[in-house]
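Comment thread on ticket #2218

A.B. wrote:
> Attaching the input chain for the structure job we discussed in standup.
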Amino acid sequence: MRFEHLGLAPDYVDYQQAWEHQRAVHARVVARELPDTVLLLEHAEVYTAGKRTEAHERPLDSTPVIDVDRGGKITWHGPGQLVGYPIVRLSNPVDVVAHVRRLEDMMIGVCADLGVETGRVEGRSGVWLRADGSRPERKIGQIGIRVSQDVTMHGFALNCDCDLRWADTIVPCGIADAGVTSLSLELGRDVTVAEVLPLATKHLERVLDPVAVTV
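C.D. wrote:
> Ran it. Output below, let me know if you need it in another format.
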């Protein structure tokens, strides 16, 4: 597994720039010119909308949104959020759901290492905390992927110490009856992307290396 750090605080990465680079790496993995590669970064602030995003879920204040070719709905990327784009070849028959579950497993492992208990919610992708007291179920990790020519694109976003007010402007991930959270909020201390990065790398290797396709 090859890892490439595109940019981390304070060198935030423009979304369009990262998308172009992701497509270039994808083409080289498809052509077997590069091994499976994971791009890791922090984006400059941006909203992106997957193919299933509905009109009422978009910002009501004319905030710009970039429409992208991944699955899922609208979400936010920005400082304090670790974003990863695993560009990996899937074995035949291609099992997209299994890939999503591996990325969920990776984020659940990262959260557990930091002392935050997370899991899955039936019928919803991503990584969640259970409802407790006055707080509803809340999402801490998002997933949206695409598979082209048996090789994955897009990936995951894990909220570390980001400003969660971004969720006030949209219906995040198209889910109106739940909340969003971050590692920092749950632990009551600042958990930076830099702290999470080695944990994410470890768990990405754990879940992706065993299913790597020899080329």
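A.B. wrote:
> Thanks. Noting for the ticket: The chain has a mean pLDDT of 89.
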